[in-house]
Amino acid sequence: MPSVAFYTLGCKVNFYDTEAIWQLFKKEGYEQVDFEQTADVYLINTCTVTNTGDKKSRQIIRRAVRRNPEAIIAVTGCYAQTSPAEIMDIPGVDLVIGNQDRDKILSYVNEIREKREPINAVRNIMKNRVFEEMDVPDFADRTRAFLKIQDGCNNFCTFCIIPWSRGLSRSRDPKSIVTQAHQLVEAGYKEIVLTGIHTGGYGDDLENYRLSDLLWDLDKVDGLQRIRISSIEASQIDEKMLEVLNRSSKMCRHLHIPLQAGDDHVLKRMRRKYTTEEFYNKMQMIRQAMPDVGITTDVIVGFPGETDEMFRNGYNFMKEINFSEMHVFPYSKRNGTPASRMEDQIDEEIKHERVRELIALSEQMQLSYAEKFVGQVLDVIPEGSKETHGTGRMHGFSDNYLQLVFNGSEDLQGHLCRVKLTKAGINECEGQLVRVLDGTAEAAV
């Protein structure tokens, strides 16, 4: 039986894509082995979001070549898409394939096996207007299923290389999404996380069909209990979207809305599509439509030209919005982007000091958000046991994305449970199991 080993760098979409590629190998009779073992085929799914992503990708490729010089080394993903020649130059690489044509991977692998000649299969992704259909019917993490609905991005923010590595926004056919949602529910999943490179841009390339329409169609899927959107831009939340948030009982009370900077001058230089005032107003509207919603965000610190005053403005703005958590990143130069060529780059020390300040603010906000729910009973789908907390401890996320740890047995995994939040914490909260809402353990605990 031929064997294949995978290594995935980067974002959740990459992990989804790797799973989808594994399905193709599985159908051909391959077994999957650990990347540290000897395999016949090594597939590295690369990331290029930062220069470090490129470097790490190259290291992993070389590691695979050393592990088994006889193996076929295939490289895909974002770094493969933007710099195929750099990867082809690494001795031992057999196949470079970008973020498209991945359904042809096996025919390339078989061709290489016969001829042992390297293939560069990367094409210009900017010309691609069609979503690549790749299903993932099952996930190792049994409780939440990821469902990729979109790829690419039309935004061209000045710090970002992604449109060049993923192409322009392409939406998956709604029928195909709903069909896969049904399959996932039949496979036992209660929660589906809709994911993509620019998830909220779903429908930009479809006739009169938007993300809000898709959400209503998914709302009708029997047995599906929770729908989560992995990320959405403030500008993509319109009246129709607010109505879904307000009226659909399946929508999770949690939205991830990237802010990136809390100062208008910086936002403009980043080429973001909103002002702080517009962003603030949109957050108010969301909170009216969906009370108690947890809003998490991404922030880039130390963007070229960010003065102390601009940083302060941002800090105060974030405090005012009161996110439930912030993912804070120091600005990292990405070759090939307009921001990497800007003068006035910020000193690393200053960046790190600002990052520290924002992480401290994020932790304050996380705690105060969690404290609002002390004494409340939340719906949690346990994901597994928390060994670090001793035996008989389970953990899982509530619909508003609070992680709860509580006493319970392994067989609760994947079942919808009612858990009372007893003690708020920063990254996790203490809870107490009240009862199981579905599955085997029907009775109250």
In short:
This protein has 445 residues and is α/β, with parallel strands linked by helices. It is built from 13 helices and 19 strands.
What does this structure look like?
With 445 residues, the protein is of the alpha/beta class. The protein is built from 13 helices and 19 strands. It has helices spanning 12-27, 51-67, 78-82, 84-88, 105-115, 162-166, 174-186, 211-219, 239-247, 264-270, 276-289, 308-321, 348-371; strands at 3-8, 31-32, 41-46, 72-77, 95-96, 119-120, 144-148, 150-151, 170-171, 191-195, 226-229, 254-256, 294-301, 325-330, 377-385, 393-398, 403-407, 417-423, 429-436. A six-stranded parallel beta sheet has the order 2-1-3-4-5-6, with helices on both faces. The protein has a five-stranded mixed β-barrel with strand order 15-16-17-19-18. Mean pLDDT is 92; it is low at 440-445.
The number of strands is 19
Question: What is the radius of gyration?
Answer: 23 Å
Round the mean pLDDT to the nearest integer and report it.
Answer: 92
Q: Taking strands numbered 1, 2, ... along the chain, how are they ordered across the largest sheet?
A: 2-1-3-4-5-6
Q: Roughly what fraction of the amino acids lie in strands?
A: 15-25%
Structural class: alpha/beta
Report how far apart the termini are. Answer: 47 Å
- Report the major sheet: 6 strands, parallel
Helical content stands at: 25-40%
Unreliably modeled segments: 440-445
Shape: globular
Q: Number of helical runs?
A: 13
